[in-house]
Amino acid sequence: MSLEEIIKNTIIQKSEPIGFDEFMDLALYYPAKGYYSAGAQKFGEQGDFVTAPETSDLFGYCLARQCAQILNSKNDILEFGAGSGVLASQILFELGRLDKLPNKYYILEVSAELKHRQKEIINKVLPELMDRVVWLDTLPRNFSGVVIANEVLDAMPAKRLIKKKNHFVELGVGCKDGQLVWQPFQRPYVSQKALLPKDAATGYVTEVNARAMAWVNSLFETMNQGLVLLVDYGMGRDEYFHPQRGEGTLRCYYQHKASDDPFVHVGQQDITTSVNFSDVADQAKNSGFTIAGYATQAMFLISLGIDEYLSVETDESKRIGLAQQIKQLVLPSAMGESFKVLALSKNRQVKLNGFKEQDLTHKL
Ligand SMILES: C[S@@+](CC[C@H](N)C(=O)[O-])C[C@H]1O[C@@H](n2cnc3c(N)ncnc32)[C@H](O)[C@@H]1O
Question: Per residue in 136-169, pLDDT tens?
Fold first, then answer.
């Protein structure tokens, strides 16, 4: 049975629409059939989208520099949603060069297929470091070190809401005449944590990511001390709820084409929502974290000296290649400004090098 049929049957059996978060969960993570659980190539030129570590090794090298500032030999790294495994390889490679390797590099990945792919790539690139890399199924206890999540929050199932006259309701997913359709719930949506725009016009659509907030809280519980680096596309609350963003932030990616229709290519296309970094930061503070910095990806990478990698490259054709990659990572028209870095710290007070040139924490 196709994943689309499975989802339709789930809705029919419930005799009511399912929340969009439940739909997104099934579409992305249903065992063996969801987008991230099934075997197709997702990342890179051959896939559906290109992430920063797939764009350039320099992305991982800069993250490694930030890790090196605070890691000691007893600390670990924990990467969530490690994708193809390329970011882990870049970070480990650069930390090796800086003589700052972590005790263990843990990976927590929900997709069995991606875990397999990650093992293959890390073993191919850095076989000598394989014994430091450990795949986990649950959060480690008493973690000390650096937690990294690049483009993970945006892949967590979010709720979609629509403004009725006086309140928001969930925009659920129903099944009508054999087709998946948007279907608003009747009851008002009561938000536990997220703030919603008060003056939104009737019909205004937005998303809230309660699961991402629960995840941030669970990170705090699991950590003894250290740093969390969250990199993703998103923005602060003012921009997230801008009146002109009335269609929300939901995006689907299929073979490098973006659309806003999650009901086509079910299980074969990526579904994402942008991150409301103000919500994440509020949750983090409520849990007990300190906000250690917030900047655009461009300024974070520049603060960490991404251009130094260019200046030490002597091979002219490699320099041209690196310059192109840096442009892709830092130009506002590419990934530079739409992607942000939010750093959270627990029991660790340090002025992070990644926010030397810019810290927009006051904008959250
Ligand atoms: C858009 S991909 C990003 C992959 C990779 N970080 C990169 O930058 O190339 C999202 C990844 O997050 C994973 N993921 C989503 N929710 C997760 C969770 N709660 N815990 C761990 N991984 C998760 C997905 O399986 C997938 O590997």
Answer: 999 999 999 999 999 999 999 999 999 998 899 9
Residues lining ligand 1, CB < 6 A? 36, 43, 51, 53-54, 80-83, 87, 108-111, 114, 150-152, 155-156, 215
Task: Provide the percentage of residues in the chain whose pLDDT is more than 70.
Answer: 98
Other C-beta atoms within 10 Å of 130: how many?
15
Q: Exposure of 349 by Cβ count < 10 A (0-12 exposed, 13-18 middle, 19+ buried)?
A: exposed
Q: How far is the CA of 152 from the centre of ligand 1 (A)?
A: 4
Q: What's the rounded Cα separation, in Å, for the pair 271 and 249?
A: 11
**Nearest to 178, CA basis, from 313, 351, 59, 7:** 7
pLDDT in tens, 313-344: 999 999 999 999 999 999 999 899 999 999 99
Looking at residue 41, its pLDDT comes to 67
Using DSSP's 3-state secondary structure scheme, residue 127 falls into helix
Residues 6+ apart with CB under 8 A from 301: 58, 59, 62, 326, 329, 330
Residues of the chain with pLDDT under 70: 39-41, 44
> pTM for the complete prediction?
0.95
* Domain range summary for the chain, segments of one domain joined by +: 3-363
Radius of gyration of the chain (CA): 21
66 CA distance to ligand 1 centroid (A)?
A: 21
Cα(29) to centroid of ligand 1, in Å? 11
CATH code for residues 3-363: 3.40.50.12710
Pair type for strands 223-235 and 275-276: parallel
> In sequence order, what DSSP letters do the residues of 56-89 get, joined into one string?
-HHHHHHHHHHHHHH--TT-EEEEES-TTSHHHH
